[in-house]
Design brief:
Elements lengths: L2 E2 L5 E2 L5 E2 L5 H13 L2 H8 L3 H15 L4 E4 L2 E4 L1 H28 L3 E6 L2 H18 L3 E6 L14 E4 L8 E9 L1 E5 L1 H7 L14 E3 L7 H10 L6 E3 L2 H9 L5 E4 H6 L3 E4 L6 E8 L6 H16 L1 H5 L4
Parallel strand pairs: 6-7, 6-8, 11-12
Antiparallel strand pairs: 1-2, 2-3, 4-5, 8-15, 9-15, 10-13, 10-14
Helix pairs in contact: 1-2, 1-3, 1-4, 2-3, 5-10
């Protein structure tokens, strides 16, 4: 494929500059005559008339202001200038073929796919990157479902999912992409207060932010329950977004994903709390070879792999 230099001229991948006045339609004619050696064979190859082909060659020579062929009764032979132009014409041929191939591939990727994922990943990771995918595949439409507790791939509620729990059954294809790391976080003011205690390593005097009853099964909720050791949490919420806000307000300690907490400006009190989760890309096996599914799956996999460090550990 070609790029553009600072002066706007096309440059092929092998470094050959492609002149502005080198029109692809005339270039095809030039290459055909150079390779076939006669107008008749080249015209047959291009499926055009000999007179039309001759006009294209004349127009190209007039635009270049140099003869490109020596005409003999036996056929056409390249001049020295023609041989020099040959490399540039072949570069344009390569660029045109690559463009056509990419355009054809993108034109075939269309339709709607439903992606099920956690709201924090959708909001802070996937949606900010989605314009890149939409630019390449404007006819591919994505529906993002964040109420993951009610979404079931087996029922085809969604086509593809980013899960933090490994599926143990069902007709699905999965791939482990990385780790979602968690730590114990609090506001700067709260950390300063607790560091003045005689025993800041203990949690017996800490206020904690935990999950509502419907989310009590979560490993982070269970960690908080053990840390409280029978005491009541300062506040209960039903989403990570509200837990981040509660921690920023200084209401206590919260178990949060590293990437959310550090973006919010919270301080990490402990990184070794044992509630990290694996990140899996899961799709229904019947759809795994669909071209549009592969496009979305590759996009999600590349995105998470590129952000592995950010997702797995506190930012440095």
């Amino acid at each position: 494929m070609e790029n553009r230099s600072k002066n706007g001229k096309l440059i092929s991948t092998n470094g050959n500059k492609i002149p502005h006045d080198l029109v692809w339609d005339d270039t095809k004619a030039f290459l055909a005559v150079a390779r076939k050696g006669t107008l008749s064979v080249a015209a047959q190859h291009l499926n055009i008339g000999i007179a039309t082909l001759s006009r294209k060659i004349d127009r190209l020579e007039e635009a270049r202001k140099i003869p490109l062929f020596v005409r003999h009764q036996s056929g056409y032979q390249l001049t020295e200038d023609g041989r020099e132009l040959m490399a540039k014409a072949e570069a344009l041929e390569t660029a045109a073929a690559a463009f056509a191939s990419e355009a054809k591939a993108q034109a075939g990727i269309s339709g709607k796919l439903r992606l099920a994922t956690a709201e924090n990943l959708a909001t802070h990771l996937i949606l900010p990157a989605l314009p890149e995918l939409r630019t390449s595949y404007p006819e591919l439409h994505i529906e993002i479902l964040t109420d993951v507790t009610s979404v079931n791939l087996h029922r085809r509620d969604a086509d593809i999912a980013i899960r933090m729990v490994k599926p143990e059954s069902g007709n699905v294809t999965l791939r482990r992409l990385g780790t979602l790391g968690f730590g114990l976080y609090a506001s700067k003011e709260y950390v300063l207060r607790r560091n003045k205690r005689a025993n800041p390593e203990s949690y017996e005097d800490d206020d904690c932010i935990s999950w509502s009853e419907a989310q009590a099964h979560l490993s982070s909720a269970q960690w908080i329950r053990r840390a409280l050791n029978g005491r009541q949490p300062a506040v209960l919420t039903s989403s990570l977004a509200t837990q981040v806000v509660a921690a920023k307000a200084g209401l206590g300690l919260a178990v949060l994903p590293h990437f959310l907490a550090t973006e919010a400006g919270l301080l990490c009190v402990d990184t070794n709390i044992g509630v990290d989760q694996q990140i899996y890309l899961v799709m229904h096996s019947d759809l795994s070879h669909s071209p549009r599914m592969r496009v979305l799956a590759d996009f999600l996999a590349d995105l998470i792999i590129k952000n592995r460090a950010r997702l797995s550990s506190p930012s440095q």
